Amino acid sequence: MLDTAAAQAIITSLVRPQLTTGFYFAVQSGGNFEISYSVMDPKDKVILEGDNERQGDYIFTAKTVGEYSFCFNNDATDKLIDFEYVARLPKEAERVGAIFAGPSPWSRPGSGLLDPRAATTRLRAPSSPSAPPFGPS
User: Looking at domain 7-88, what is its CATH homologous superfamily?
Assistant: First the structure.
């Protein structure tokens, strides 16, 4: 749930470069069902952004190792947002079988999904009173 006049960032640390990264979001309830979003790389460069969107489904290459931010900004009423994220190795790595040695609850063998230790996700809270709000605490 994203409160009225709030912002929230989902931070993902990638430990491998050149990952095919995808994310999906959809506003499930609240007001006009529209939200603003941005995706930033580890150097805080905006990769994707949009205003007043109801849903989005995007794929990009995470070129460098580090923290990627998926940020949502809500100017209107409280909203419930569906969010999904996945990172995959490039197709070349899939062909040589460099994915998993055995079954994992995170993927099907050969699907190209990363080992869960390769990416971690957390919510970022403001570090000072002047920092922008990132969701309820």
Answer: GOLD domain (2.60.120.680)
